[in-house]
Design brief:
Layout lengths: L2 H33 L4 H6 L2 H21 L1 H18 L9 H28 L6 H56 L21 H21 L2 H8 L5 H20 L1 H4 L11 H23 L4 H29 L6 H49 L13 H4 L2
Length: about 400
């Protein structure tokens, strides 16, 4: 097996293990703290720092990866997740809101360090000129991550019932620690490390395409979370009368399906020119398709159509279109980046991604409370149209030559 392929598989395996723990810890915290009598608002507050620190981590993490190597930042992320899991095994009397928010802050830092490192590493392990190969690799990595995060929801709930809250946390922490040790031994040193030490100011990209793509990414993920995070689950539970298990199971299944579509995006978007990946035109087309879906769902609800079938069918179609949009963006950030600065560009891009998630999360609760689910859907459509407008500045992708020296491998 070629060394780069082997390293890609090691990185992917480590990312998968981390992702399952990321989904599981979220489900464990939601269910267990609900059982402890925490209010819905208090449970929501537990995840505030998780999202906030994601913005900071992506900004700093890319710069850090360029200085010390992507494999090291990935393993720092794994180590922080082990610490976050261990922090929650303390007695119930210690589990105050600030304490758990701190643990979730560490988990958020860990998640974004791991994600940034894994995705930037794909660029360094893929030969330039093979843009369709790069698209395939990043789509598989990203799509499988989302599917496994959904699986992590089920793992967390199952472990809580099987061995209890602290037993589940201990098992997850021990497993991830073993994966950390294994990947540290198997991966080469210095992947993605720049020869010169970059200044912190260099984290802000001076490549126009990356800046426009990052702005589009902010609105793309804001468009999902502005109705998906609060408005949709509350509507399903409070208006349609679904049980907690039905709501959680449906949303977890949606995330898994979304991940499979994302991993399949290269086959769904197969182009006529061999070795050519998607470009700005593909991003614009699929943003326009996506914008039509929340618009259609909102109009159907306003016309009095049965909300259950409308939302189920609408969510499935939205998930397919959103997954393809996300896969195209995830490919373009790597395609637009050169090998020397890939980690900083990916970090900057995912900072915008985290900012969009945070804005969507906050707006989802506010807009649902003031304008209902239809209002959330109209805001979603507006956010997608903003991403579409920004995508007009995205160029097509041109293959660039790659040297082993510039790859940092």
């Amino acid at each position: 097996m070629h060394a780069n392929t082997r390293n890609y598989l090691v990185v992917t395996g480590g990312y998968w293990a981390f992702t399952i723990t990321d989904g599981a810890i979220r489900m464990l915290v939601v269910l267990y703290f609900h059982l402890l009598g925490y209010s819905p608002f208090e449970v929501a507050m537990l995840f505030l720092f998780y999202e906030v620190f994601g913005i900071v981590t992506n900004l700093v993490g890319g710069w850090l990866g360029a200085r010390i190597g992507l494999n090291l930042t990935m393993h720092i992320g794994m180590g922080l997740q082990v610490v976050a899991l261990a922090m929650l095994t303390v007695p119930d009397a210690w589990l105050s809101v600030p304490y758990v928010m701190l643990a979730q802050a560490l988990s958020g830092i860990a998640k974004d360090l791991n994600k940034m490192s894994a995705k930037a590493t794909v660029k360094t392990l893929t030969g330039a000129g093979g843009e369709s190969r790069l698209f395939k690799y990043v789509a598989i990595l990203t799509g499988s991550k989302n599917a496994l995060k959904g699986l992590g929801f089920f793992v967390g709930a199952a472990l809580l019932e099987w061995i209890g809250f602290r037993g589940a946390l201990a098992l997850l922490a021990g497993t991830l620690l073993a994966v950390l040790i294994a990947t540290a031994l198997m991966l080469p040193q210095g992947v993605g490390k720049m020869k010169s030490k970059p200044k912190f100011t260099q984290v802000f990209s001076n490549t126009p395409a990356i800046n426009w793509l990052s702005a589009a990414r902010f609105f793309l993920f804001g468009a999902r979370d502005v109705w998906f995070v609060v408005g949709l689950p509350v509507f399903l539970y409070a208006v349609l009368g679904w049980s907690f298990m039905q709501v959680g199971g449906f949303l977890a299944s949606w995330i898994i399906g979304y991940g499979f579509v994302q991993a399949s995006a290269p086959r769904l978007l197969r182009r006529g020119h061999a070795g050519q990946g998607p470009g700005g035109g593909t991003a614009r087309l699929w943003a326009l398709i996506l914008a039509a879906l929340p618009t259609g769902i909102a109009l159907a609800l306003m016309q009095g159509w049965p909300p259950g079938p409308v939302l189920v069918v609408g969510l499935i179609l939205f998930g397919i279109a959103f997954a393809i949009n996300s896969a195209v963006h995830s490919y373009l950030i790597l395609a637009y980046s050169d090998f020397e600065k890939v980690s900083m560009n990916v970090g900057f891009y995912y900072m915008a991604n985290a900012g969009g998630r945070l804005a969507g999360t906050v707006l989802s609760g506010l807009i649902y409370q003031t304008q209902g689910l239809e209002g959330c859907l109209w805001w979603s459509a507006g956010f997608v149209l903003a991403a579409w407008a920004l995508s007009w500045r995205l160029p097509e992708v041109e293959a660039t030559p790659r040297t082993a020296d510039s790859a940092g491998v």
